[in-house]
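Appendix B, record 7
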Amino acid sequence: IVPGEPIQCTDDPSHQVVLPGSCTGLAYMDGNLIAFTADAIYLISGDGPNDQGAGSFPPPRALTRSFGCCEARSIVETNIGVMFQGNLGIYLIPRGCGPVQYVGKAVQELMAPSGGMARVVLGAIAHQTRDNHVARFLVAEPGGSSSTTVLTVDLDNGQWFQDVFPFACSELGSIDSLLTT
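Structure tokens (predicted):
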């Protein structure tokens, strides 16, 4: 970054991190860049090289090689960690980047109906209400670009809810529910 000039990025390999597979999404939590592929999750930390190219990033460290993220729009940072859509449904990387937890069992049938293809998350958002912290996932049929179905999880107690809007949405936005009366 040079004052008075637009931010510029270098194509020099010293400023790149190479993943063992195609990147399907990114998140940042607790000082770590979380890089997802379709079948693995990697943590990238460190300061990396300086502006002159001295130094480097350490190699990506595998958090799991059992599964990854299948939809970048599902990635959301919450007060309890990063949530995302994996092969079975919704997963959580807890704060501190501990072992990945499958938290979507209660809505597994809604995410992947028996005999059908898995639904896709079109958008995800986390916010605080007057009473709790929640994360919401707008889910659509495979290939869909809008939906009326929102899956909500109360992050304080782990309870899931399904809401059906009277109109189709293509994305979720944030509302400041603490300001509403």
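Remarks on this record: The longest strand covers residues 160-169. Confidence is low (pLDDT under 50) at residues 176-181.
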